[in-house]
């Protein structure tokens, strides 16, 4: 799984344990999602291209660096929304584009209900944001949309992944790097990640 990057950072492990705890309230859950997302984004953006930037410190002139590539954040509605602010804290100039998908409870396949992407891509790198990579259906469908849009460089950033979803994503889009906080045991009969953390959307927004 050379394109799968599971974080080994102790802060990620610590905060994910807090996230998983069923007694963590929605306010704290949202804070933790934001914090873990920022830590994972740090790892996922390590290879972004930069270009020189001339500047002057209080002591002298020097050549620094600034991002060369224009970044797009693509949260999968609705659970992915909670990850945006963590990445925005690091990249305030990143564009945010929303793609709405829900899982049909009978077929377990994603259904697209919202997409407002312009005709031509406005970014060169897209980070797909979704807390859970379970069956892989939503991640695959979103990647399909972005590739049709014309984006060449796509990465997936999630909090927890299941081997089933990772394998499916690799089969369909082997060129997309996957960044996760942890890889869990697998899926249960309802296609939920176990041990997981429950429904990330419900826990963020206090529903369900």
Major β-sheet, in short?
9 strands, mixed
Q: How many separate domains?
A: 1
Low-confidence stretches: none
At CATH level 2, the architecture is 3-Layer(aba) Sandwich
C-alpha end-to-end distance? 35 Å
The amount of beta strand, in percent, is 25-35%
| DSSP helix fraction | 25-40%
What is the residue-mean pLDDT, rounded to a whole number? 92
CATH topology: Rossmann fold
Beta-strand segment tally: 13
Order of helices and strands: EHHEEEHEEEEEHEHEEEH
Tally of alpha and pi helices: 6
Kindly describe this structure.
- By secondary structure, this protein is α/β, with parallel strands linked by helices.
- The chain has a single domain, classed as 3-Layer(aba) Sandwich (Rossmann fold), CATH 3.40.50.
- It has six helices and 13 strands.
- Strands 1, 4, 5, 6, 7, 8, 9, 10 and 11 form a nine-stranded mixed beta sheet that branches. It has a two-stranded antiparallel sheet with strand order 2-3.
- Helix 1 runs antiparallel to helix 2 and helix 2 crosses helix 3.
- The longest helix has 19 residues.
- It is globular.
- The mean pLDDT is 92.
């Amino acid at each position: 799984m050379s394109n799968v990057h599971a974080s080994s950072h102790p802060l990620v492990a610590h905060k994910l344990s807090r996230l998983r705890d069923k007694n963590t309230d929605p306010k704290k859950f949202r804070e933790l999602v934001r914090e873990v997302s920022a830590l994972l984004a740090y790892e996922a953006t390590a290879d972004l291209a930069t270009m020189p930037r001339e500047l002057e410190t209080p002591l002298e002139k020097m050549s620094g660096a600034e991002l060369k590539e224009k970044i797009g954040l693509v949260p999968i509605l609705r659970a992915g929304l909670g990850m945006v602010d963590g990445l925005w804290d690091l990249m305030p100039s990143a564009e945010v584009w929303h793609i709405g998908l829900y899982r049909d409870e009978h077929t377990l396949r994603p259904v697209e209900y919202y997409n407002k992407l312009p005709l031509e891509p406005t970014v060169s790198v897209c980070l797909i944001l979704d807390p859970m990579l379970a069956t892989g259906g939503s991640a695959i469908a979103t990647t399909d949309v972005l590739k049709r849009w014309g984006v060449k460089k796509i990465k997936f950033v999630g909090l927890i992944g299941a081997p089933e979803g990772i394998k499916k994503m690799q089969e369909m889009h082997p060129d997309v790097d996957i960044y996760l906080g942890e890889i869990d045991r697998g899926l249960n009969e309802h296609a939920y990640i176990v041990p997981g953390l429950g429904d990330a959307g419900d826990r963020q927004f206090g529903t369900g």
